[in-house]
């Protein structure tokens, strides 16, 4: 490690170029010996923690402003990830099969010695990411609605409390939509449960089209749904809700089954608990139903 410290510029908090003899002598200085990185990466199954530990280690040797991992199931990035002017994108593989897309962001162009060092370090990341991803997918089975692939009630309870805590800490707005499918029971009875399932899956797809990547959608059960709109005031919630209702009205299956959507909306107020916020949104939903269905009402 001493050879690395000689190339750290403490006054500018930057890293000078590493000498080629260091990069070409892994067996002597050992990328494998970099501050027990493998052990620390394998110590957790939490993808966020794994990525952060790896990025912290990389940042000791290469000037980066963030690391991001993308899979089909989840995207994880370092805290305060900043899109850099320059990016280096590569893949993590196991047995020639892709595990994840790995992106390094930086404010300066990556040099050859940077890329060689990254290549040596990132092979330590592959198996911890693979293990963390399997753990994540296993967790998702317990908090996901299998019919619609949205979150379920358990997932909602967990994410709702986290969203309230984050909103209270950061002061960013949070809006909750509570949604009920009008006439769903009648459609289910008239057209059968298979058709009812298709209605639910179709509505789930509509929700996904209408929300942002930062938002979360859930199915409580039956024909009840909820959406957490992160960093969203009432005006954004109204636009999302209006788009949901418009797409429902335009969908052939929903039209055939005469199903529409009533929506109640509530935006978090200072020191409000999750139960209080949900109660206001739920009351707004009942008001929407009482006003003739296919309505949006804000608390």
TrEMBL record:
It comes from Catenovulum agarivorans DS-2. Residues 172-299 form the GGDEF domain. NCBIfam families: GGDEF. It catalyses: 2 GTP = 3',3'-c-di-GMP + 2 diphosphate. This is diguanylate cyclase. It comes from the Bacteria. CDD domains: GGDEF. Gene3D superfamilies: 3.30.70.270. Its cofactor is Mg(2+). Signal peptide: none annotated.
